[in-house]
């Protein structure tokens, strides 16, 4: 797949999470690509049966590309806590249950950590880019930090209020979105995508 082909087309953002779609739209702005979300096109939400972030991202991008006939970009991401053997990891969304209750998911993370002295965690983002009938591409990013309790801030989404990125004094829930976009796992995956686009131009 070439950058030229991609840049001349409409791109589906293959995500049903409004917090993510908002961030992806902001991160895509400099690329000047016309985007449409999976929700707007009423695309189905596929079951995430993969065992890795990359597999689930690929599955979501391929499903969206096939059902829309357009190029599609999917994001599979999550919070990895080494002291919890990597949980919630690819199950990060599922820990919030059908009501997407992240206060409950954050409480579970904190409860399972208990008195553990190791509160290190990182977010991972795998982006998958698919065009109908073409080989899929994966881009990845990660950001390290520590888990706070109680959670802080109302901005962002998901586990943001309990995540303090290394070297910062504000949680992702407190930060201005532009600051999160400068350092987040998602921003780093976009940098990876950007350097690939430049190479293939
Ligand atoms: O920057 C982030 N800040 C806070 N929490 C985050 C972030 N990035 C991922 N997360 C957590 C919450 C999210 O729900 C889950 C991803 O799960 P994941 O399956 O990739 O997304 P999702 O089900 O919410 O939407 P969709 O699959 O339609 O793209 O990890
Ligand atoms: Mg999902």
Number of strands: 6
Q: What structural category characterises the helix and strand content?
A: alpha/beta
What is the name of the CATH architecture? Answer: Alpha-Beta Complex
Instruction: Provide the CATH topology.
Output: Maf protein
Which percent bin holds the helix content? 25-40%
Q: Biggest sheet, strands in spatial order?
A: 2-1-3-4-5-6
- Whole-number total of structural domains: 1
Radius of gyration: 17 Å
Which segments are poorly predicted (pLDDT under 50) over 5 or more consecutive residues? none
Structure description:
The protein has six helices and six strands; from the N terminus they run αβαβαβαβββαα. With 201 residues, the protein is of the alpha/beta class. It has one domain (3-200): Maf protein. A six-stranded mixed beta sheet has the order 2-1-3-4-5-6. Helix 2 (18-28) links the parallel strand 1 (10-13) and strand 2 (34-37). The longest helix is centred in the N-terminal third of the chain and has 16 residues, at 53-68. The radius of gyration is 17 Å and the shape is globular. Bound molecules: 2'-deoxyinosine 5'-triphosphate (Y43) and magnesium ion. Magnesium ion (MG) is lined by residues 48, 93. Residues 48, 93 line the site of magnesium ion (MG).
